[in-house]
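Quick one: structure for this chain?
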Amino acid sequence: METPNSIREELDEEEELFDEGTPFVVETDETPVGLDDEEAADLDIGSDLQQTADNIADGDQGLDWDMSGILPSAPHDADDNDDAAGPDGFDPTIGVSELASENLDDASLGFEAMESLLVPDLGDWRGDEKEQVLFDDRELELPDESNIKDAPALWRGCFEQPGRFEALAATERQLFVGGAELIVFDEGELRAVPCPSGLTRICAFGGTPARVLGTTKRGVLLDFPAPHYAHPTLLDTAAASEQRDEGRRPPTIVTWPDSACAVLTGAGRLLRLCSSNSAGGGSARVEPLGPEHPVVKLPLDTDRPLVLVQGERGLGLSEAEGTRACAWRMTPLEPRWAKSLAEEPFEFAVQGPYIAFAGSRIGVVVLDTRVQSYQRVPGCVAVAALAAGRQAGEPRFWAALNHEISGRTDLVQIDPTTATAIRIASTETVFDDEFAPARALAWAPKGRILYVAGDFGVRGFRAQA
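Got it. Here's what it folds into:
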């Protein structure tokens, strides 16, 4: 409903349509007459209304309202034109300028010239017709619609330990599980070691029994010497010139060849740690490693010294020549895949000539470093964990696929030679009526057991002979 105030506000907004310097003239036959109070009292304004009120008071209920003395008569439109408005002589086009058709270009409508609009060149990043990055099979596959086939013989469950864990490491004889504490399984014996902060990643190295190095949620390194692991010590890897309280990224670790462990510090320094004796005890010896390019990420599993670096033209793989890493050789990743990896979190693992990259959206992509070919593994979506190793002498990768809708986790084995996956086990991963995702995998080659850990605990599945 319009009110006088709202009409006034609308008129104020439209006042710019009129020229304030030109008076608004309305022609009329009436001559304005000035009135004072005495002259106004002699006029008959409202006399008919008063007479009607007197008749009602006398009992005459016949209402015969004469509004001619109150309301002005409506103007007569001789042409019967509904669009006409205002008094005689009013021009409705006052203040409105007619736009010429030749002026209706982008500039007159407030748009910039078309050459300033950025139109992406799809050919720069879409690839060829067979491999499209923007919208391909990874976008169309859903976790519960995965078409991965089952293995001829599913792996049998052989181990289970309840709890909530985030890290795993396995050797020929021992299994290490990390969470709020470090749990050591050694030939049937269980040992729990308290930690000052929850473990997020662990690696075992240095022989049997193995030495354990772990990263915590607080971003520090804990050293657990063998054989008792009872008194972990804080391992300081910062250089003398580095400040320890700058809130850098937490360190990452991986078991390195030649019974060692590699550490990527929060400051981006790459270090090599090894035990002073073969039994995993004694003090830890730290040696700096120096790739030419900045190190971005360490692999989850690797059988040779290899890291992901940031080169002049993007991401690349830098491999050490020899276990002592005296020299490094850098190979750039294909730009299309490097761009995809840079857009989301991912992990990677190395086994033989193959490298597997895994992420929740990219799925699993296998790189053959001998011919620099990239192949996506069909069906591997919602990847939660990755591991690498050898089975029957052949390189293999394993991935955990979380299926939150159905409340289960599928374990798949990937053959890098064909870039295909088969489901080897499926386990229910629900805790307290909520989905409990998998977080880590570890392969024990001697027992042919794949371990998976998460919010549901840790479980082991043995390969069928």
